[in-house]
């Protein structure tokens, strides 16, 4: 790596080619640096375009269809990095109103989801799921978490939650939960599952990709 500062790192794995790429974006303290990519196939770092964003939500990113998506506040919307071309693009998709927190989740067949809480007060909150309409560049709501699941998942209104996706399945958990809440986007069904890997790993210090141990029917 040419710039030795602490960087925001993303791991992108290609299982078909049995290779991976490490994408180093901006400095963790906000300094703008050129994007660098390590390609395991050639065992080499390459320097690419500087990311044109000033206020990056670095923890909220997803890798989907050979593209890295990140939430940004300046400019508002998403930044998309085309790994093959080595270029950044701004997607002016406005976030839903009253969004308290949100996560980008990559789905199957090039689908990109936004998962987050909506609400103005602690007693008026709900969890919702949106899908990015790439043609119109807008977030379209596709589901709401039923209140009974929301209350069971987050016992306190300020409690933090985590989520990850595999194919078109989205799994939710909170820090004190011993189970995960699963949403099947295709079947539009909610269910509880035992255990969740997000409690066992601190995402600030290691790469991991949560996966389900068995098929979900």
TrEMBL record:
InterPro entries: Kelch-typ_b-propeller (IPR015915), SCF_F-box_component (IPR050796). Gene3D superfamilies: Kelch-type beta propeller. PANTHER family: BNACNNG10540D PROTEIN, F-BOX DOMAIN-CONTAINING PROTEIN. This is F-box/kelch-repeat protein.
